[in-house]
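Hello Y.,

Per our agreement to keep a running log of every chain we model this quarter, I'm adding this entry. I've kept the format consistent with earlier entries: sequence first, then predicted structure.
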Amino acid sequence: MDSIKKNICGGMYDIQYKEDTAKAQGVLLYEYPQIEQAKKNYRVDTIPGRDGELVEEEDYKSNITITCSFSILHERLMPKVRELKRWLSGTGKLVFSDTPETFYEVLKVEHENLERDLKNYGRFEVRFICYPYEFLKSGQEVLSKLDYNPYDKCKPIYEVSGEGACELVVNGKSMTANVGQNMTIDTRLQVAYRKDGTMMNTAVSGDYSDLWIVHGSNTISITEGFLLKIKPRWGYEA
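Predicted structure for the entry above:
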């Protein structure tokens, strides 16, 4: 069974990172990637005289780790490993061949030592440290209207065009902004800025988390006279 799994994995399964693939690099996945799920954080409070503890889930989640093991067969093994390390470094988007419609956002890459079985053959393990969300590529498209999110809760980018004070309302919660021609509100990074990069954090008032889009029906509106576009960045919580 193990040999069948490895043959299937090596023959059919692939990853793409920074616009290149393992197969294009001439290496195979030794086994399916292992995904370590994000850990949720909880606040635990005790009340004197009361049995048990109060447990409240917080919004924060840890990063996730995706481990990939590559099989390398090359006449110049160590130079090939160094080439792979250059490719598998830095930040970028990680895509699995069986789910090409989604990607993970890699924050950093860690390498393990080469396990060398033969002169020209070895295995090389890589750990991708990723933001705890599986993004849909469709969620990177800019929408002029959004009233339903079929996926998990997401943290969108809002692009506002207009002049003067306005109110952005999402599901009954609002943020006010003093817009000068344009403003981008990134609810994940919790920053506001102009298209030229000028920071505008002091020009907004309200909680960025109030602008997150929940699963299911949503109501989103903005003051008349302003144009609003939304990049939902939706997908699946890890």
